Amino acid sequence: MQSLILGLAAALLWGMHDFTVRRVAAVANAAALFLVVLGAGTVLLAPFAFVAADWGAFTPGLIGFCMITGLIYALGVYSLFCAFAIGPVRLVAPICGAYPVLSVGFAMLQGRQVDPLAWLAVFAVLAGITVMAQGESVVDPDALDANKTKAVMWSIAAAFGFAVSFGMLHSAGQQAPDLAVALIARCTGFCGVLWWVLRQRIALKPAFVIWPTLLLMGALDVGGMIAVTAAGAFERPEFAAVTSSCFGLVTILMAWRFLGERLSALQCIGAAIVFSGIVVLGLV
Q1: Residue ranges making up the domain that contains 176
Q2: Could you give the residue ranges of the DSSP H alpha helices within the chain?
């Protein structure tokens, strides 16, 4: 149950983060925005990690493991941005949202027993997210055909990035303090994105204009990452990855409530399916 609650907390935080992204996406390049958000989250996390964490638990191998995790996580988020920039939500969201299935699959490979009812709940969550996505607008069919392959590839990269990094965060969280693990991962992810921004000569100045908003996004992002990482200390940590995938649902509901975006009957059905799956997971 603890993993389930932590996953829901991550979904809420990341959903609010993505809701904010919708309002600032046109201000600067996605990589520039993501870099500032990563940096802000790292700065906010650092004091707590240094004070509360027992750094003596880290070995050189574990530090390297956390660094690789951070790079994979950054790649997953960057792939997500690229996928949504190319393809429509109804194409991209179901593929990106498939990472919980991979997470549960990885848990099976590690020797954990996964009840068939849990698998049914996982697919219910994914089906609900897919149904929710069907209510979104579709880009021009010709443009969709031209970019479909690229969008699918980026979506698959995002799904694998999330599944692998979350699994690695869970493993690292079982060996060392959660805050320290998250800090090392975020610092490395920040360096990776910074390298990409410098390599592509992406302008950062437009992003700094809205630094208060990006600071808030950084806090929401790091909060979600910590919640998922903390699940590694409880039973069934893969369930946190499943429920955290509901962040897209949170974003859509917030857009409906605060931006007046239309929420169709189909999307309401999808929301019911998602929450039904979560309830079943809590009972397994």
Answers
A1: 2-283
A2: 2-24, 30-52, 60-86, 89-96, 99-109, 116-133, 141-173, 178-200, 205-208, 211-230, 238-244, 247-258, 265-283
